[in-house]
Amino acid sequence: ARFPKILDCRLKGDSLYLEAAGGSEIRIWAGDPSYIRVPLVLKPGRVTISLVQHFKGYEDKFVVQLFKNAELLDENVIHFIPGTPRLVSIPIKTSFAGKSPKGMAEIPSGEFTCVIRRDSSTLEPFIAFPDYTKPRKINIPRFFMDAYPVTNQQYYKFIQSSHYLPKDTSNFLRHWVNHNPPIGMEKHPVVFVSLEDARAYATWAGKRLPTEIEWQYAAQGNDGRKYPWGNTMDSTRCNFKLNHSTEVGLFPDGKSPFGIQDMTGNVWQLTDDVYDNGSYQFNIIRGGSFYSPGSSMWYVAGGPVPVNHPEMILIVSPSLDRCSTVGFRCVKDAD
Q1: What are 34-93's pLDDT values in tens digits?
Q2: CA 122 to CA 311: how far, in whole Å?
Q3: What pLDDT is stored for residue 228 in this prediction?
Q4: How far apart are CA 291 and CA 282, in angstroms?
Q5: How far apart are CA 189 and CA 170, in angstroms?
C-alpha cells in the first residue's frame, strides 16, 4: 500500500516546512503516534513551525500525518539527528528607511553566494557548528548597516536616555569607571555587553542585530573575498593582534566593498543568530578581535579572521557571556 503524495514536509535547521493540498487537519507527533500522547494539530495549507518552540528538548523521529476527518490521507516521517544545531532566532524587522540613516551605510540588494567555513587550525569538536560549507545562493534585500561598531560613547547615550539596567548586572560594562566610559576610550567599541544588552540598544535605536548572512555579505560583498579589502591579509588595514581595542575608523583602508569599517580584528561582533543543539544554546560571533592567544587549542581563535569564519559564544548567563573582546553593530531594514 502507498499513500498518494498530498503532504510535503521539509526540514531546514529548526524549521519544519509543511504543505498540504487538502484534508482537514495536520497532526505532528514527537515519536510514533500513540493513544497516550497528544499531537500538535494544525490546519492544512502552507505552514512553517519551529521544532524547539513546540517540542522543546526532543530530538529524534517526527511523524507528520494529514487527515480528512478520521481518514488518514498521507504520512511523512522526519528524522532529526540528535545534537544537530538548529537556528532558533527569528529577526524582527525594524521600521523601514528609504535612505541611509546617520552613521550607517547602504548595503545594496544582490544575489550572494555564501560559504561559511572555519579555518582547519581552529577546529575543535566539542560543540558542532551548523554545516554551511556548501555554497548557498541567497537573495539579499537592501538594508543599512552601522559603518562602525557601537562605541562606548553611543552606549552611554543609550543608558542616559533609556535608563537601561539589566536584571543581571554582573560584568555589565565592567571596564567603565564610575558608570562612565574610560577617558580616551569613548570611541572604542563597547564591550562587556551580553546579547540581551546589545538587543536592548538596537531596539532603542530603532535597529536590530544583523543575521550572520547579512554580516558576511556586508563584509565580503559578492566576490567571495577572504577579508574586507581583498584576499590577502594586510596588517596595516586592521587592528592586527595589538592586545587592546582601537578607536573605530582608525583603519579606513580596511573597509569592505560597501564602505563598512572595523569588520575584522578590533572586537568580535554579535549577530542575531542563536542556535540550539538540544543541550546548549549558542550565539554566532564574527570578525575576530585584538586578542590573539596561541598557547592552547581551547582558546577561541584571535586576531583578525577571514570574514567567512564563524565562532560561537555559549549562552550560559549574561554575567558569563559578557567579555572584553566582544561588541556589536546594528542594521536597519530598507523599504
Answers
A1: 998 899 999 999 999 988 888 877 878 999 999 999 999 999 999 888 888 888 888 999
A2: 10
A3: 98
A4: 21
A5: 19
Residue of 279, 291, 285, 275 lying closest to 327 (CA atoms): 285
CB 85 within 8 A of CB 275: yes
**What pLDDT sits at residue 118?**
73
Nearest to 239 by CA among 173, 174, 188: 188
Helices (H), 184-285: 195-204, 212-220
The C-alpha cell 487538502 sits at 22
Kindly report, residue by residue over 136-191, the tens digit of the pLDDT.
899 999 999 999 999 999 999 999 999 999 999 999 999 999 999 999 999 999 99
What would the grid cell of residue 93 be? 524587522
Residue closest to 263 by CA, chosen among 201, 189, 177, 333: 189
* C-alpha to C-alpha distance for 80 and 213, rounded to whole angstroms: 24
Amino acid at 102: K
Q: Are 31 and 61 in contact (CB under 8 A)?
A: yes
Q: How far apart are CA 151 and CA 136, in angstroms?
A: 33
